[in-house]
């Protein structure tokens, strides 16, 4: 059990974000999207700017991916690739509405000098992959059930040279792993058990006996769609219960309001891809 007084150590991170200049809800590919609900693009951009400024203020490097017209979900930059040890394993989106986003991400990684691996299997980047560098020698957690195909887990394992643990998601409201599980530091996670199959719950309990367990209220507030540097936990401002839980575990919650982007089915983590050298 973690002592509340334990000092958590932040580690400088490098992130990739994409501004929501073309954000809209023009189609519904997850249960959170409602095409009848209006979107305030100006507010979405303002909230995104606050997120970017927050990450920069915490000492992290933030790169900006140019948005492309006609791709309203490109703001959810986490879905474009999964980067470990300098290698970017590219995305291959399940839904045709998002397929063209992959090329924009590939252009960024290749022009920036990263080793880019084009995928053969359907996967949605960090939406369904999480990495813990100090857990079991470097462990990848991978979700499936709604977007990423299980075959992509094996492909990622081969491309990134780290073991992959597959976890089945069973609730369509938690269609990506990053809506149901988050990495708090290099070896600890937080997750909502109800989003996973019974078998996946057992695996998570065995691997992470000291995990911070979230409840349904936390999960519905997108409280698990967070970004942590090992000390500061940047999370959706609506998720006050989740903020209290991470604070009790010794972390420092940093709330940001992303209520407008939530209309697209994402929050903090969906907007942030981590670039791991």
Automatic annotation (TrEMBL):
Determine the domain of life of the protein's source.
Bacteria
- Which Enzyme Commission numbers does its entry carry? 3.5.3.18
Q: Which InterPro entries match?
A: DDAH-like
Under SUPFAM superfamilies, the record lists: Pentein
GO MF term (any one): dimethylargininase activity
Q: Which UniProt keywords apply?
A: Hydrolase
Q: Which family does it belong to?
A: Belongs to the DDAH family.
The record's annotation in PANTHER family points to: DIMETHYLARGININASE, DIMETHYLARGININE DIMETHYLAMINOHYDROLASE
This protein is called Dimethylargininase
Organism annotation: Plantactinospora siamensis
Species classification = Bacteria, Bacillati, Actinomycetota, Actinomycetes, Micromonosporales
Give me the gene this protein comes from: ddaH
């Amino acid at each position: 059990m973690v002592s509340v007084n334990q000092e958590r150590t932040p580690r400088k991170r490098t992130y990739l974000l994409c501004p929501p200049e073309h954000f809209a809800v023009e189609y519904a590919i997850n249960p959170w999207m409602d095409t009848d609900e209006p979107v305030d693009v100006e507010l979405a951009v303002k909230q995104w700017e606050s997120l970017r400024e927050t990450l920069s203020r915490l000492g992290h490097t933030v790169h900006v991916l140019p948005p492309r017209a006609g791709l309203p979900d490109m703001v959810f930059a986490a879905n474009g690739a999964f980067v470990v040890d300098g290698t970017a394993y590219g995305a291959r989106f399940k839904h045709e509405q998002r397929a063209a986003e992959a090329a924009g991400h590939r252009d960024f990684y290749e022009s920036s000098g990263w080793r880019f691996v084009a995928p053969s299997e359907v996967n949605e980047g960090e939406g369904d992959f999480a990495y813990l560098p100090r857990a079991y020698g470097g462990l990848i957690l991978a979700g499936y059930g709604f977007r990423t195909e299980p075959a992509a887990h094996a492909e990622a394992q081969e491309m990134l040279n780290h073991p992959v643990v597959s976890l089945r998601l069973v609730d369509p409201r938690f269609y990506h792993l990053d809506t149901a599980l988050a990495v708090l530091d290099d070896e600890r996670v937080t997750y909502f058990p109800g989003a996973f199959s019974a078998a996946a719950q057992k695996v998570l309990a065995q691997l992470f006996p000291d995990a911070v367990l979230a409840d349904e209220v936390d999960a519905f507030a997108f409280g698990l769609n967070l970004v942590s540097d090992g000390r500061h936990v940047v999370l959706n401002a609506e998720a006050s219960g989740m903020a209290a839980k991470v604070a009790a575990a010794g972390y420092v919650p940093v709330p940001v309001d992303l209520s407008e982007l939530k209309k697209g089915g994402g929050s903090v983590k969906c907007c942030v891809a981590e670039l791991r050298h």
